[in-house]
Structures are given as C-alpha cells and as structure tokens.
Amino acid sequence: MGHSSNRGVVYQGPGNVEVMDIDDPKFVSPSGKKIDHAVIIKVLSTNICGSDQHMVRGRTTAPAGMVLGHEITGEIIEKGSDVEMLNVGDIVSVPFNVACGRCRCCRELDTGVCLTVNPARAGGAFGYVDMGGWVGGQAKYVMVPYADFNLLKFPDREQALAKILDLTMLSDILPTGFHGAITAGVGVGSVTYVAGAGPVGLASAASAQILGSAVVMVGDFNKERLAHAEKMGFVPIDLSQHDRLGEMIAEVVGVPEVDSAIDAVGFEARGHSGKEQPAVVLNSMMDITRVAGNIGIPGLYVTDDPGADEKAAREGSLSLKFGLGWSKAQTLHTGQTPVLRYNRQLMNAILHDRLPIAKIVNAKVIPLESAAEGYASFDAGVAAKYVLDPHGLIA
C-alpha cells in the first residue's frame, strides 16, 4: 500500500466526526511494540454502533483524534509471521473485543475482559475510549492483533459476500443481543421484555425468538422504531402511553411480570419527563421481572460520564433500587459481550437462513465518506442500522 491509502472516521469532539486520511495500519501495538500475531484487513463492511454514538455525543472521556469503529468484517490482505491458521484472501468477522487468548479470562472465554490488551483496565476494543488505544475499523484498512485467536473465518467466500449484510452484524450487535438474551435466562416458552428498540434491542429480541421465547415485547418511546419492531414480529410497548410498565405488560400476557428482561438502553436512559434518569430502565426491569428471574444488561454503562445531568452519574453512580432486586432474588448480568462465545453458532444460523438479522435491524448501506451523515441520522433516532461500505463492494 502506498502512502496513506487509508481513510477513516475520526472523532473530532462532541457532535463532530470527520472522514479523513489516516495512517496505514502497521504490525505495531498501541504501546509501539512490533507484533507478529496480527493481520491487516481490507474492511468490507463496518457498522455504526450506539456505543460509538455515546462517544460522539461527548458522553465519555474520548479524546479528539480517535479513529472510531469496532464492528469490522473484511478480507485479510497481509499477515504476520506468527499467524498460522489464517491466509491472505480469507474473509473474516472481527469480534469487537481485542483479546489475547492467553490470559486467565481469555482461557475461560471471558474475552470481553481480557487482562493484557489494555494497561488501564480489563477489556480491549477497537476504536473505543479507555479500551487500550487500538485503532478503529471505520476505515479502509485496519490491523487486527492475536488474529488466530480472535478471527472467525467464513467457510465460503462467495456465500460470505452474498450474505455480508447479515454477517456484518456478527462483530458486535448480534452476539451482544444474544448474550443479553442468554444472561436473561431466555429459553423455550420464556416471556421476555426488551428495553430499547434500537439495533441491539432488535438483535436481543431476535435472539430471544431463536432461543424459543413464547412472546417478545420491545419497549421504546420512538414511534418509528416501535413500528419496525412490530413489523418484525415483536410486540411493541409504547412507553409514552403511561409510566406503569407492568400494566402494559399485563395487557399482553395477563400478568404484570416477565421471566426475562433485557436492558438494551444503557446509561443515557430517559424517563417520562424526557429528562435523563440513568437508572430508570434497570429499576423498571427489577420491578417487572418475576421473583428469581434474570436481567441481562447488554446496554452500556460507563465509569465516567462528563455529560450527565446528575452529579453522581458523572462518576457512573446510579440511583438503583438494588434492595428490590435483592429481595426478589433476581440475577443481574453486566459487562461487554464475549463475542467469541457466540459468533460461530450465530454465523451458522445466518448461513442456514435461520436469522435474517440485517432485515430485523433494518440495515442500510452508506459509503464510508458519508459516515458523518449516518451518525447524524442515527442520533436522531432513525429506525435503521448503518453499515459503512469503505470500498464500494457491497451490492
């Protein structure tokens, strides 16, 4: 590759992203160490994620100049001398987690909290604040470390290209939704409630359905997103109707409670006043989940939120009715999704037409150069999942 054939989406400060020339990827870690276990990927598809949006809104401590993007699918064009199981030309899904495959957590498949790829805390990710400084993949090319461990190779090139819009969801939102459903204890016959009808909420709902849920309700204030959720076969719960969620659930299933609840909203949650109440979703989940039921929390919560309304929330402290959950013997499950635990099974579900996830999340392809417009529409609550096409290769 010649000098800077690379372009990427760069965070320039709150509300401002720009597509610009960025450095070509090299076999070097963020700390400057030469690494041989990496590959260089030509990015075929990369998606805009709600967690990117938190940064772009200025709701994290993300520094200006960061290349964004952690949902990456692409073709290997170069590999380090220590990569044994993959070849140039392979089309692969890149989990958003950067994981070493060698530490205690990775060995137990807790790849969302790898102990070695981020000096600041457990857990690494591409193009994300506090996640180790790995350069993001909303770009034409990106370096992926620990390639043998992290990458999921698609079995057939033509098939992969034909289904790229579904397969692109394997890097994050589909496994994240699935993890939400699994940790919420969803199984055959479960009554399930999902908070949030954005892409992760829809992926959670689709996951609950494939896991055998009897009824999947999806709650939101956004009318367009609710209409799309209903079209996809989920029961919409319009939270603007009134603030008694249990009553709305009882109208659907006869009792004001569910077996499994999934929080796909996270820390920028809003209450009925329209004001931010970062714990409002978690508190309502504890309220509606049955005694001894489970709550999965794929929605993002942060340790620092400089844009929060409440002083406590700026440090990630929430007004949580924890006594309610405790007295009901509920299980709450938090944390980044360990994508590797699920992506192979979900790939098979996609390849065998069991899970039309692109349709469910309403995937919309836009050129890399239009990323800023994609961020703006997604921020405005459009019922779509934006997929960036850096090389104009997606049909």
Automatic annotation (TrEMBL):
It is an enzyme of class 1 (oxidoreductase). GO terms for molecular function: formaldehyde dehydrogenase (NAD+) activity; zinc ion binding. InterPro entries: ADH-like_N, ADH_Zn_CS, GroES-like_sf, HCHO_DH_non_GSH, NAD(P)-bd_dom_sf. Pfam families: ADH_N (PF08240). Signal peptide: none annotated. Its EC number is 1.2.1.46. Residues 37-155 form the Alcohol dehydrogenase-like N-terminal domain. Transmembrane segments: none annotated. Its cofactor is Zn(2+). The keyword Lyase does not apply. It comes from the Bacteria. Keywords: Metal-binding, NAD, Oxidoreductase, Zinc. Belongs to the zinc-containing alcohol dehydrogenase family. This is Formaldehyde dehydrogenase, glutathione-independent. It comes from Jejubacter calystegiae.
